[in-house]
Design brief:
Elements: E1 3-6, E2 9-12, E3 16-17, H1 23-36, E4 40-42, H2 50-60, E5 68-73, H3 80-94, E6 101-104, H4 113-125, E7 131-135, H5 139-148, E8 153-159, H6 167-175, E9 179-183, H7 195-203, H8 208-218, E10 222-224, H9 231-239, H10 247-254
Length: 276
């Protein structure tokens, strides 16, 4: 598995996103993904599936030290004591050892970043997690979080696909040595409606989703976590790493960012997004 290096972490370039996966289906898909060659599973407290993710990891028969596990804490639990309890709860539900990466799921509108970054570092110092990072942070918030953190942050998980412009956030992450983890990497399959991507897919005998994932992987600093509820798609997504796009194809896909199609925009908690 290709990996992305970031501030001491080696993160597999494609992982399984588990948002909206529940119950036995979630556990089975996690197990199937690991058996198919995945080495990275992404979950979150808010997904209500950490227990099933842990069950899937154990059922896969794959050694735990070969699986990179990411989970995330919801802003409702960002105050110091709440954060510590939330971390303990996530570890108990996962029940598969120390998570490799713990993220702040969204920036909080009420708890100061300094308080939560301190709690995040405390969890790392206590050996409850190997690496720490952030998610859905803007350029200003990235700079602030990095400045406040005792340990290096390793990634910012954001919505990223060919149809959104994330140049400013990526540049801020690069400045601090953070990787970018892309959720919704195939834009909820809206890439299949793009003639440019479909044309490139036809030339490579691939699907539009595979081309979008290959484009992201080719950027070098991006990890993708596509979600799939269909086992057959798991292998298809991994095959994207075998696709080599030409410079012209990369440029054609990159030009689509002018659409700036944001699909996840939770009004109750979203920050003031960076202007493009």
């Amino acid at each position: 598995m290709k990996t992305v290096s970031a501030n001491g972490a080696e993160i597999p370039a494609i992982g399984l996103g588990t948002w909206e996966l529940r119950g036995e289906q979630c556990a089975q898909l996690v197990s199937s993904a690991l058996q198919a060659g995945y080495t990275h599973i992404d979950t979150a407290q808010m997904y209500k599936n950490e227990r099933e993710v842990g069950e899937g990891i154990r059922a896969s028969g794959i050694d735990r030290d070969k699986v990179f596990v990411t989970t995330k804490i919801w802003p409702d639990h960002f105050a110091t004591d709440d954060f510590a309890r939330a971390v303990d709860e996530s570890l108990a539900l996962l029940n598969c050892g120390v998570p490799d990466l713990l993220l702040l799921h969204w920036p909080s509108r009420t708890v100061p970043i300094a308080e939560t970054i301190t709690a995040l570092n405390k969890a790392r110092r206590a050996g409850l997690v190997r690496h720490i990072g952030i998610s859905n942070f803007t350029v200003k918030q990235i700079d602030e979080a990095v400045a406040l953190s005792e340990a290096p942050l390793v990634c910012n998980q954001i919505e990223f696909h060919p149809l959104i412009n994330q140049d400013r956030v990526r540049a801020a992450c690069a400045r601090h040595g953070l990787a970018v983890t892309a959720y919704c990497p195939i834009a909820r399959n809206k890439v299949a409606d793009e003639p440019v991507i479909c044309g490139i897919a036809a030339r490579h005998n691939a699907s539009p989703a595979q081309i979008a994932l290959a484009w992201l992987a080719g950027l070098g600093d991006v990890i993708s976590i596509p979600r799939s509820s269909r086992p057959e798609r798991l292998v298809d997504n991994l095959k994207a790493l075998d696709i080599s796009l030409s410079e012209d194809e990369v440029a054609e896909i990159s030009a689509l960012k002018s659409r700036h199609m944001r699909l996840v925009d939770m009004e109750s908690i979203r920050p003031d997004w960076d202007q493009v």
